[in-house]
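Before going further, learn to read the protein records used in this course. The integers have meaning only within a learned vocabulary of local backbone shapes. To see the layout at work, look at the sequence and tokens printed below.
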Amino acid sequence: MPGRRNTVSEFLDQLDHPRKDDIVALRAAILAADPSIQEEVKWNAPSFDDRVTMRLAPKGQLGLILHRGAKVRPDDGFAFEDDTGLVEWKTSDRGVVTIGDLGEQLPAVVDLVGRWLRATR
């Protein structure tokens, strides 16, 4: 059907990525943490509540982009406390989390995503 967007499940079924198992596990953990989270395919990757988007880089890299929408917002005093040290901040409201060993990082990453989504609602 022309113009039809794939669901995240359909997107993942067709995905060829060296870390597909990690991608699927991370998605499931994020969705299980909060049933109200909405997901879609955005920028050719799973995205959650339009504020957390997976970064599916080639060569087996996996990450998350924390943002407050597609456009960078002017500095409005927004601040977010990252006590995990996982986020590399590009601006005050846009950061990148690089996922190394998902098994080690999963609880901290899921908690971080939940706090980010609550802080940016």
About this structure: Strands lie at 39-42, 45-48, 52-55, 62-66, 87-91, 94-99. The CA atoms of residues 19 and 60 lie 6 Å apart.
